[in-house]
Amino acid sequence: MFNKDRWREIIEVLTTNVWRTIFTAFGVCWGIFILIVLLAAGKGLENGIKQDFGNIATNTMFMWTRATTKGYEGLPKGRSFEFKISDVQALRDNVPNLRFISPRNQLGGFGGNNNVVRGIRTGAYNVYGDYPEIINQDPMAVTSGRFLNYNDIREKRKVAVIGLGVKNDLYDKEEDALGTYIKIQGVNFMVIGTYKKNNSGGGEEGQKEIFVPFTSFSQAFNRGENVGWMAITANDGSSISQLKEKIVDVMKKRHKVHPEDTRAVGYFDLYEQYNRVESLFGALKAVAYIVGIMVLLSGIIGVSNIMLIVVKERTKEIGIRRALGEQPWSIKKQILMESIFLTLISGMVGIIFGSLVIFGINSLLDSVGPVDMFMSPSVSIGVVTGALTILMVSGLLAGFIPAQSAIRVRPIEALRTE
Amino acid sequence: MIEIKDLHKSYKMGSNSLHVLKGINFKVEEGELVAIMGSSGSGKSTLLNILGMLDGADSGEYTLDGVPIKNLSETKAAQYRNKFLGFIFQSFNLINYKSAAENVALPLYYQKVPRKERQEKAMKYLERVGLKPWAGHLPSELSGGQKQRVAIARAMAAEPKVLLADEPTGALDSKTSYEVMDLIQKINDEGNTILVVTHEEDIAHMCKRIVHLKDGVIVEDKKVEQVRAEQYV
């Protein structure tokens, strides 16, 4: 199959009419170029949007309480209630497949007053009372010291992990924050670690957070058994969207909320949002593939056409070769290989040009800095191999009809052709 | 070597069919040099095509070297052509982008002979037709006589049982024609069986036997005194 003579012949046939070959090749080249660039653009958009999600565990929901809207079991409507710390255990017992349940309490918030003091510096930050698992749901890199652990929780230590933004505000540049104290609403906490979040989603805000043990938080700021809100992550393989109803039902039952009261327990399903975005990009990718393949198709038809002409031109030669004893299959193979070769080579040129364009865009993006909703367009090696497979198959298809017509001509008729 | 019995062939021309061969009985022994003569339309090319397995007969028997040739698939026909037959055409039918040596080596390529051996054999046969110095030339760089000699070398390269020549001198002037016939005679002297289709009397008389075809039947089949082409060269 890969002997020298066959290849020489392929090259000879394709170079007899160089310009025709080039124009034909251009069709395929252009198709695959469009496909690659479209896919890369889609990927760039996807990267840009997904960056906003950061690396938050996406199989997660957030849940909080609101006033009831229906009276139930003698309790009036409009009643406020709060989650309790015992709800966490109840959820663990009643809902399977939950990976993390993090009760959280919070101080500060958007536009809050200055609540943290260190020496003469002050700042307004979000302060969270958290369990150590939160680092899995809201990932952050601990840059110095350590994150919260269960000893902190058990002993209600007044310790804090602060964001780099907080450190920059409250400390001098070369100052070491570890072991120092900050005063959160009048209560001193020792800094045991600093963190940096690498998702830009929270922006600067994400770096300006303070994490303290849930138990210390409750004690220091008089929350008792109350839980402000919860972040619940499901196991991989089961979706939180399917579990959320059960979770909410458990909460309603425990807090004597009317089962049909849809307002009392509020939640936000991150997974659903994420899926929505995912399916959007899935659709985008499908469009890119469809458009690319359609353009490619016209190139392929061009190749098929040219191969038909080549076969027509070589009818006599094919007749001679068959008279000399070449097997029909061998002739068919020759035509098919010419077609595949032409498609593959021109496709590769298209891929190379596409990659150059992507490379150009990337270096442009690097030089002008981050752009909204667009980041590092790229195509994976999988896409490239996919494209090459498409090319192989389409080359085969393009050559099929010409090859068939080549062996359909009887040798005697082929020989008569002048 | 060749034996045909009651061979019939007709072509469909629209609604009516044209009966070209009307029962040919014909036998060729090994080492014969046979001329098939006839005016155009007499069916001589059709006969040659059937002998060459390029075309199938409607009825009748055809045996080549003891092998019955009937209902061949294209693949089988190609294989037999390659093994049993060498073709020489009026219009030479060389492949124009291949050099003389490559053209000669082509049938060997289809026999899957290794490259090296192919080249050696091709050179050997080119030498026999006196064209060794032209081995690397393309057909377009050769004269008509040279082209036909390359074609003869190609036909012989696969060492076939029978050489079939369809008007081998039809496109050549008389001097070159005699040169080609001289070559054909010499090949025949070595014991090869050759069939030549021609309509030229002098060419026919350079063979050992003349078969006259007329309107699809053999009207005359005679042995002749061979005229050597050498004397005209």
Distance between the termini of chain A: 30 Å
**CATH class of chain B, anyone?**
Alpha Beta
Sheet/helix structural class of chain A? alpha+beta
**Which runs of chain A of at least 5 residues are low in confidence (pLDDT < 50)?**
none
- Biggest sheet character of chain A: 12 strands, mixed
Summarize the biggest pleated sheet of chain B: 6 strands, mixed
Describe the structure in your own words.
The complex is a heterodimer of chains A (418) and B (233). Chain A is α+β, with helices and mostly antiparallel strands and 418 residues long. Chain A has two domains: 193 residues, no CATH class; 129 residues, no CATH class. Helices cover 55% and strands 17% of the residues of chain A. Chain A has 14 helices and 14 strands. The longest helix of chain A has 44 residues. Chain A is elongated. The mean pLDDT of chain A is 87. With 233 residues, chain B is an alpha/beta fold. Chain B has one domain: Rossmann fold. Chain B contains seven helices and ten strands. In chain B, strand 9 and strand 10 form a beta hairpin. In chain B, helix 3 packs across helix 4, helix 3 runs parallel beside helix 5 and helix 5 runs parallel beside helix 6. The model of chain B has no long low-confidence stretch (mean pLDDT 89). The chains are: A alpha+beta (418), B alpha/beta (233). Chains A and B meet through helix 1, helix 11, helix 12 and helix 14 of A and helix 2 and helix 3 of B. Chain A: It comes from Flagellimonas chongwuensis. Chain A: One of its GO terms (cellular component) is plasma membrane.
